[in-house]
Structure formats: C-alpha cells, structure tokens
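Limitations
The structure tokens in this dataset are predictions for the assembled complex, not deposited experimental models. Users should treat interface geometry with appropriate caution, especially where small molecules or nucleic acid strands are included. An illustrative entry is reproduced here so readers can see what is and is not provided.
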Amino acid sequence: MIKDPNKCVMCRRCETMCNEVQTCNVLSAVNRGFESFVGPAFNMDMADSSCTFCGQCVAVCPTAALTEMDNTTQVWNELVNPKKHVVVQIAPAVRVAIGEMFDMEPGTISTGKIVTALRKMGFDGVFDTNFGADLTIIEEATELIHRINHNGTLPMLTSCCPAWVKFFEHQFPDLLDIPSTCKSPQIMFGTIAKTYYAQKKNLKPENISVVSIMPCLAKKAEAKRPELTKDDHSNVDIVITTREFGRMMKSAGIDFANLPDSEFDKMMGESTGASIIFGTTGGVIEAATRTAYEWLTDEELEDVNFTQLRGLEGIREASVFIGEMELKIGIAHGLGNARKLLEDIQSGKSKFHAIEIMACPGGCIGGGGQPYHHGNMEILKKRQEALYVDDESRKKRKSHENKEIIQLYKEFIGEPYGEKAHELLHTHYVAREKI
Ligand code: SF4
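Predicted assembly:
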C-alpha cells in the first residue's frame, strides 16, 4: 500500500475501518494537533505491523491518501519482453465489477469481454482463477473428509483469503493447526502454471510470467510470501487489482463496453459454477459442500443450491445433512466478525465442523482492489447476485466435474491430498507478533 499524508484530510475513516470493523488496530493518529497524521504506532512501516493488507482502509479513503501500490508498469514491461511467456488469470469477483469503471451497471457479467481485452493487450495465455478455485475445492473437500473420518482438528477453517490468513497468524497464533493447509486458488493456479503447464508447453518456469488480476490488495503480499515461492522463482509474479486492470485498459484505449466476447484458453481455462461463487461470502463453503456431499454419500446431489449458506449478514450459521451426518457450518465476513468465531474456538464454545472466513465485507466482491463502492451495499448485492446467476447458467456446477482438473490429476498430480498434491498445493502458516 502507498500512504501519502499530504492528501490526508484526517477524516479518520481508515482508522474506524481498521480498528472497529476489522479489529486489526494498526492505524491511529500519530502525534497531536497540526503535527498529527494517520499511521501505525511510532510511524513504523505498514509491512512491519499487524496489517493484514485487506485494503479496506484504501476502500474507504475519500482522498486517495491510501492507495494500492501500482504494478501496471511491471505488467507492460513483461508483455514487451520477448523472452517471457506471459499468462494471466482473473479472479471470480473481477468479472462482475470491472464494468463499473466503464459506466456499465454493477453486476454486469463481463467475462467474455475481459478475455478479449487481455488478448488485445498481448498476453500469451488467458486463463481463469476459477480453474484454481475448482482445484482448491478438490483438495479442501478431501481434507475436510479426512479430518472428519480420522478425528482430525475441527472446525476446519478455509484458507483462500490471504488477509484472513495474516490476521490469524498475528492475532491467534495458537490456532495455526485449524485452517486448511490448502494454498489459495491464485497460488494453486501459479504453481500449476509453472509446473504442469510449463512441461506441456516445453517452457522453463523462469521464462513464464504469471500475472494475476485480483479484487484484492492482500493477494499482492500473498504472492511474495517465501513459503509460496519455489526455488528461484515466484509462482505468481505480478498481481494487479481490478482498478489497475481498468486503468491499463483505459491507457491502452480499449473500448471495453463494446468488445465482443471470447473464450479462455484451454488447459487451465475450464471452470464450474462452484468456482464462480468463490467471489462472495459463503461461496467457498457452498462449493466445498457440493463436492463433499457427493463424495461422502456416493449419491448425486440433485439440488446444488445451498441457499441457507447465502446472504450478507456478518456472521451466519447453517446445518447441512450429509446422509446421517449433520455438518455444522459457520460463515463470517469482515475480520471483526471472524474474531468472534475464533474467540469461540479458543474458549471451546464453537460447535462447527467447518468455517468460511473472508476478510472483506461481502467477501471478494467488496475487496480492497475493486472499483470503489463507497459503502453502497446495493452495489455489493448486485455483484453477489451476478455471481449466483453465472453459477446457475453453467451446465457443470460441482468442482469435481471439471474435465481439465480431472485430466490434471490423471496426468500429473495423482491422488487428491496425496504426496504430490501436498508438495504442490498445500502450505503452512507462521506465528507472528501482534504489533
Ligand atoms: Fe482479498 Fe477476497 Fe480476502 Fe478481501 S476477502 S482480502 S478480496 S481474498
């Protein structure tokens, strides 16, 4: 994040968001009177503080005193580098929000236009983070079933939101064995691009550049985590937000609203409806439940809509019956809400088998890198509805039906949750100080 105190009008919205909504307690007024400015205690670097990089301070700042670090020049440089094969992935929440930067209605599904724009910009491969999301579900549902069948640690917490991961590392370092060990969809995608895809295309991993377009600021920091990089190369090289992507298209003179639609490239471009709903609160756990249900019961799930898991209330709970078993599920979005569920786990009061947590209000649809919504919940509702519409429109709505994922396991990974899957697709967490 970039902090420019010259633009700050001391409205303190960022502080309210950081301290009261997200309960991270990183931002406050440093000094007093005319000398005061907003920053972490002792004006230390944000990077050295307990900041989760959720970017919600950026989302509420009215003057751009807080903004994301701009990585667009790096992307242009990669695209004109003849030695680099540059591939791009786009996250689910981007496709229902990017249109707002081109005067389209919130919730317009722009997937086909995005693919066309990315080809015009010169990417060598245009892929979908939803492929990574389907892969995440295969591993996460297998991990949940494994924990249930082998008396493993419960509840299992989802791990695809990097701001949430950094939050529990700082605030609840005694609970590091509870989250799923699955890498996020972004990092799973990058890992497969630099291994399986590299092999298939006969390319060296270091000559592939993976660019991510995310609704999220925390994904920039996630891509730089040492345990998520491999030997001498990153799995994801550059992350830009939805806003940066919009600015790139504008600077290139792309008339986004009038572009024709096109399709993602093959090999890592197929996705199911389950992966699309990753972009909203409740979506990850609904996707995992669809797969876990069929795998645990050996029966086809007739109605895949677990509507009891949907909504925008900050904390939700629901039960799903899988055969004889009542699977108790908790959902929280916003880190202040997450804190409540974690305190229940610490005090032994939690009754859940699985909990989904997303750091941003509404989940990634309200991410810190999305077009500014200025707290307008109607905009978030429209983005959320669009994701469910997109899910409903798909013939395949369960992650384990994704043919490219089935092929990937057959040709390269082997068993879900097996040895190679652990090496490639799982990670560990780090206890951090609360500063
Ligand atoms: Fe990023 Fe989504 Fe988590 Fe927000 S909820 S920090 S956008 S992954």
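Some entries come with short summary sentences. For this one: The chain has three domains: 2-67, 72-130+185-258, 137-181+272-367+384-425.
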